[in-house]
Write a structure and sequence with these properties.
Layout (H helix, E strand, L loop, with lengths): L1 H39 L9 E4 L8 E9 L9 E11 L4 E11 L1
Antiparallel strand pairs: 1-2, 2-3, 3-4
Length: about 110
């Protein structure tokens, strides 16, 4: 009986972990895409690295934005900007990265 209870307890623990991971990997892409949508409404000059959380609705989830200019020989004029945007969504156990590139014109 003790062995059966131990097995049941372990299975329950694994189920809780899988459920938590499934929730994160369903939410994280959606939240990252939402943050990217906010950034795409900005101008090049307004882009800035930042971080925060998603509020009470998504307790425990944090985000950060990393921005880097990418040099390209084809973009000679200073008004053209090719930019790498990386959005990281994380909790205590998992991390989701969304990396994309955007072209901006001043």
């Amino acid at each position: 009986l003790a062995t059966k209870l131990t097995v049941i307890y372990q299975l329950h623990g694994q189920t809780m972990t899988i459920s938590s991971n499934a929730r994160f990997y369903n939410l994280a892409p959606m939240l990252a895409q939402g943050k990217l949508s906010e950034l795409e409404q900005s101008t090049y000059k307004d882009l800035a690295e930042s971080s925060g959380d998603f509020g009470e609705e998504y307790t425990g989830l944090q985000w950060s934005v990393q921005i880097e200019d990418v040099t390209a020989d084809l973009l000679e004029a200073e008004k053209y900007h090719f930019t790498r945007i990386e959005i990281i969504v994380s909790d205590d156990e998992s991390t989701y990265n969304l990396r994309t590139y955007r072209f901006f014109v001043d």
